[in-house]
Amino acid sequence: MASKHTKSFKDSMSMASDLIHDFVCSPCHEDKLNTEAKYFCGDCSKYFCDKCLTFHSKLFKQHVVLGRKDVDKWVGQGDALISCDFHPGKVIELLCEDHAEMCCHLCVSLNHRMCRTISLISDLAKGVYKMTDFKQLPSKVAKITTSLNQVREVRKKNQGSLKTSGKSMLTKIKDLRKSLNQLLDELEKRTVKQMDSVLANLDDTLQKDIDSCTLIHDQLNALMDTIQSQGKEDESSSYIGFRKSEEKMAEANSLLQEMSTKPELTATFQPDTRVTQLLSDMHSLGKLQGNQETLTGHQMSDMKSSEQIRPLHDISRVYTVKNKSNFYVKIKQDTDTCNIYGITELPSGEIILVDNRNNRLKILNREYKVIAQYDFPQQPVDICHVTGNQVAVAVDCVNPVRHEVHFLTVKAGTIKMTRKFSVDHVCMSIRHHGNQLYVGSYTALYLYTTDGKLVKKMYEDTSEGWTVAQFAINQDGKRIYICDTTNNKIITIDNNGRILATLQDPDIVRPYGVHVSEGGHVFVSSWFSNTVVQIDQEGRKKLATLVRMREGINHPQAVWYSTHTGRLIVGGEENDILVMELQ
Questions:
Q1: Do 561 and 321 form a contact (C-beta atoms < 8 A)?
Q2: Rounded Cα gap, residues 26 and 35, in angstroms
Q3: Are the C-beta atoms of 541 and 560 separated by less than 8 Å?
C-alpha cells in the first residue's frame, strides 16, 4: 500500500503537465501547476512566467528581472540550498526513500520511475523545527567542523615539518656527496702520488743508463782528441792512448750488451673497478622512507618516482658469479622439505619466501635467517610487493577449490592478513605494477585492480599444457616476460598482449621463475635444466648462464635480485636458498 506521502506526490504529478521544463514558474509551482518560467528575479530568487511576472512587477518595481537572453545568469542565483545538484535550475522537492536520495521532478522521471516510495519534501518537512536531531544540528556541525579544523591544522603543521625534513635530508645528501667527493679527491691524490713515484723511479733508472753512455762516449772522444793531438813523434803516448781506448771500448761494448738485454720501461694504470661496481649496484645514497602504510597506492607510485634516488645502471652488463653461499631456511615447524615458489623484498630489506610445500611465508633478515612466519590453511604459490609493508599472495587450492589473492601487512616482525578477493580462474602467479595487479593462471595472464575488479585478459595460450607459469614486468611496464614451461620458452609481450619476442635455449628447460631487477636485468630459473640464466632486456637471447646443474640448487623455481645487497637469491626444492654475489 502506498504511503500518504507517495499519494500526495502522485496527486501532484497528475495535476502537472507531462512537459519537462528547464525552469518552472515558482508561483505556479506552488499552486501545483507546471508552467515554464521565462524570467528570473535575483532579488526574490524566484522564477516567473508572463502572467506571474505582471503581478510581481506591480509589487516590486525596483527588482532586477532577467529574461531568457540572460538565462546563463539564472543558474546559481537562486537558492543553492534547494537547487538540484544534477539538474541546475530545478528545485529539490522529492525524496526517494528507496535510495535515500533527494531529487527534483526530472530526477524522478529519469532515474526513479520504478521506485516504490517517493515522498514530497514539503510533507516530510512538517514539524522539522521540533525535531530533536534538527535542534542538535548546529552543535553537531560545530563539533565536526572543529575537528576538521584541528585535523587541517595538524596536517598543515605536518606539511611544514615535511618541508623541514626535506631540507634536512637534502643537507645530509649534499654532505654525503661532499664527503664522497673528498674521499675520491684523496684517492686521486694518492694515486697520482703513487704514479709520480713509479715514474720517478723508472726515470732514475733510465737516467743512470743515459749517464753511463754519456760518460763512456765523452771519455772515448777525449782519448781520441788527445791521441790525435800528439802527432807521430811521441809513439809511447800514442800507444798508451791506444790501449786506454781499447779498454774503454771494451767497457762500452759491455755496457751495450747489458743495455740490449734490458726491456723498454713502461708504466700502465689498471683501474680498481670495485668502486664502480659498488656504486652501480647501490640503489641510492641512503635509505629514504616515509610511513608508507598511510599512503594510497597512487601516492606510493608517485613517491617511488619522485623521492627515491635511482642509480645509473648499465643495462648491457653481463653478470658473472663472484661467489655463492647457501642459507638454511627450514624451521622446526616444517613437516616437509622446503619448496620455494616465490620471493619478494620489502623496502626495509627483509626477504619474504613462499614455502608452498609447508604452506607458509617466511621472513628473512639481512643475514638470511628466518625471523617470522605466517601459516596458510591453503597453498600459497606466489608473492609480490604491493606498497609500503604490504604484499599480495596468490593462493590456489584444489580441495576445497580456492583461487584467491590475499593482502598481508608485515610490520615489526609480524604478518597480518588485511583483506582478500577471489578470482574465477587458477591463481598461480602474481605481480604488482602501476597500482594494478597482474595474475597468471596456467594458460593466461589477467589484469585486475587492487580491489579485485577484472580489467581485462592480457594474454592467453591454450595450445598445450602450462604456457603461463611465473612472469615479470620491467620498470616502465611496457615489457612482460612469461615462462612458457611446457614449450621451454620465454615469451616477451607488450602491455597490450602483443608478442614481441620468443626465446629458446638449451639452458632453458621447463622455465618457471623470472625476475627483472630495478636496473632492467632479466634473470630466469628453469626447473628441469637446474639453471639460472641472464637474458637480454629484449627477451631475444641468453647473455650468461649463472648456475648449472649440480652447481646450485635442486629444481630452481624462484629467483630475485636484491636491490639492497646486489645479490641474486634462488629458491627451489631444497631446505637451503642459494645467494650469489655477482660482478
A1: no
A2: 9
A3: no
144-201 residue pLDDT tens: 989 889 988 988 988 888 888 888 888 888 888 888 888 888 888 988 998 998 899 8
Contacts 24+ apart (CB under 8 A), 306-311: 308/283, 308/284, 309/173, 309/283, 309/284, 309/285, 310/283, 310/284, 310/518, 311/279, 311/280, 311/281, 311/282, 311/283, 311/284, 311/519
- Ordered by start, the domain boundaries in the chain are 4-126, 138-270, 321-582
509 phi, psi to nearest 5 deg: -125, 120
- Model pLDDT for residues 56-99, shown as the tens digit of each residue: 988 888 888 998 888 767 754 445 677 787 776 678 889 998 88
User: Span 321-582: which CATH code?
Assistant: 2.120.10.30
**Sign of torsion, CA 122 128 133 137?**
positive
Q: Show the cell assigned to 94.
A: 522529492
User: Cell numbers 520504478 correspond to what residue?
Assistant: 114
Which residues have a Cβ under 8 Å from the Cβ of 9 and sit 6 or more positions away? 94, 118, 119, 120
C-alpha cell at 426: 587458477
DSSP state of 312: P
Q: Which three cell numbers stand for residue 292?
A: 608508507
Q: Residue for cell digits 762500452?
A: 252
**In the chain, how long is the greatest CA-to-CA distance?**
160
Which residues lie below 8 Å from residue 164, measured CB to CB, with a gap of 6+? none
